[in-house]
């Protein structure tokens, strides 16, 4: 048998056992298959000493390109960072999801899934007043109808709790969101409830949010620096977050440009509180701009601040695939899964990183993407690889 591609000598990771091993991958018709070491491939890719990962999954970005002020063209950003699947985190609601699906998701080389916003018009960021998260505007029947219409595309719900969106409503928007998510799951649809937790109003404290979230829900912008944070007065991660993790709540970075700081990452990591999922919260205004421009940058800031390489790689592959109920298709390199592959190296590098709050720190090494294959076809390759 002649394979489309054979990736030889790469370092592959068993994320369930947290073990590295050397393995050849055989790609045929967009799938990973059992291979014959003596067989030929249309192209041999020598990955000696490189990390061969499942295609990365960015669980939080915005792709309603041309539809709002946040949306990025996914194919400009994702392939060069090793990303093959990404979640649009609530850019659209029931008023405009159809347009996003037709004009953003269907024609994208990058696989885009979506959370549908609980507010009909979707996210409205970058203004003094964001989307108004009035629970009376959250129509369970309308939202459920979209899950039924697009079961392959919609993976959850998005709610933004912030001073500019929920002040005056307290925890009522989240209570309504949890009820809707439970109804959708009861109907048989996987549904992550992803909750933006940054610049929180006084009537929606972290403790109250965590009490309402259910196992599998995602607390996003974990290391943000505005208003109430995850730290106590001694700069230790608060007990209620550890308790919530034991209950199955997922914690996600959602870096964005402003939702992280070097001290917050460093102190939380020293305290042993790492994210389950690393995500970018990439938006148009900051594409390719420092201090944060995508998932690759978020991975490198976590490396800079003390998270180990294997845990970082798991947090952008296997962990989000499981959270999205897609681990039988992506997030691993098992035989029969889709041939979405990202080849990476870790280079020694003295590079100064900085955040939006004036903090700076020099790196010792960085993740460098070398090649990306989407459904078994190359979509990015470094010139020197």
Descriptive report:
This protein is α/β, with parallel strands linked by helices and about 375 residues long. The chain folds into two domains: about 1-55 and about 335-355 and about 365-380, Urease, subunit C, domain 1 (Roll), CATH 2.30.40; about 55-325, Metal-dependent hydrolases (TIM Barrel, Alpha-Beta Barrel), CATH 3.20.20. The chain contains eleven helices and 17 strands. It is globular, with a radius of gyration of 20 Å. The protein starts with a strand and ends with a strand. About 50% of the residues are buried. GO terms for molecular function: deacetylase activity; hydrolase activity, acting on carbon-nitrogen (but not peptide) bonds. InterPro entries: Amidohydro-rel (IPR006680), Amidohydro_3 (IPR013108), Deacetylase_Atu3266-like (IPR020043), Metal-dep_hydrolase_composite (IPR011059), Metal_Hydrolase (IPR032466). It holds the Pfam family Amidohydro_3. It comes from Hominibacterium faecale.
């Amino acid at each position: 048998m002649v394979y489309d591609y054979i990736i030889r000598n790469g370092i592959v990771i068993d994320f369930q056992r947290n073990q590295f091993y050397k393995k050849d991958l055989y790609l045929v018709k967009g799938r990973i298959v059992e291979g014959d070491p003596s067989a030929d491939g249309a192209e041999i890719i020598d990955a000696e000493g490189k990390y061969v990962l499942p295609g990365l999954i960015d669980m939080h970005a915005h792709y309603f390109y041309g539809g709002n002020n946040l949306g990025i063209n996914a194919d400009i950003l994702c392939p060069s960072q090793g990303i093959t699947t990404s979640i649009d985190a609530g850019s659209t609601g029931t008023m405009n999801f159809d347009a996003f699906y037709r004009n953003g998701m269907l024609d994208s080389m990058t696989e885009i899934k979506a959370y549908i916003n609980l507010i009909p018009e979707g996210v409205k960021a970058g203004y003094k007043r964001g989307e108004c998260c009035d629970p009376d505007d959250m129509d369970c029947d309308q939202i459920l109808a979209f899950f039924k219409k697009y079961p392959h595309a919609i993976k959850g719900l998005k709610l933004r709790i912030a001073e500019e969106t929920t002040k005056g409503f307290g925890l009522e928007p989240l209570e309504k969101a949890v009820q809707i998510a439970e109804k959708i799951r009861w109907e048989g649809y996987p549904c992550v409830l992803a909750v933006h937790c940054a610049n929180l109003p006084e009537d929606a404290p972290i403790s109250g949010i965590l009490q309402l979230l259910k196992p599998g829900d995602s607390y996003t912008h974990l290391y943000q620096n505005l208003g109430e944070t995850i730290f106590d007065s001694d700069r230790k991660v608060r007990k209620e977050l550890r308790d919530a993790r034991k209950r199955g709540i997922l914690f996600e970075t959602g870096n964005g440009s402003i939702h992280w700081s070097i001290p917050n990452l460093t102190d939380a990591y020293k305290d042993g509180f790492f994210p389950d999922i690393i995500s970018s919260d990439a938006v148009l205004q900051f594409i390719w701009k420092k201090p944060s421009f995508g998932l690759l940058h978020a991975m490198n800031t976590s490396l800079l601040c003390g998270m180990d390489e294997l845990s970082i790689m798991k947090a952008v592959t296997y962990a989000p695939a499981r959270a999205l109920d897609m681990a039988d298709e992506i997030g691993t390199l098992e035989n029969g899964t889709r041939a979405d592959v990202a080849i990476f190296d870790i280079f020694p590098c003295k590079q100064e990183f900085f955040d939006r709050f004036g903090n700076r720190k020099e790196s010792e090494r960085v993740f460098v993407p070398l090649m990306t294959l989407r459904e078994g076809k190359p979509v990015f390759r470094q010139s020197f690889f």
